[in-house]
Amino acid sequence: MWNSINDLMQALNGHKTLMVEPDQALPGRARREFAVPAEHPLLQAPLEGPFPADVEVVYVAMGCFWGAERAMWQVPGVFTTAVGYQGGYTPHANYNEVCTGKTGHTEAVLVAYRPGALDAVLKAFWERHDPTQGMRQGNDTGTQYRSAIYWTTAVQGEAVLASAERYREKLTAAGKGAVTTELRPASEAGEFYYAEPDHQQYLFHVPDGYCSMRGTGVEC
Question: Is 64 among the residues known to form the active site?
Answer without folding.
Answer: yes
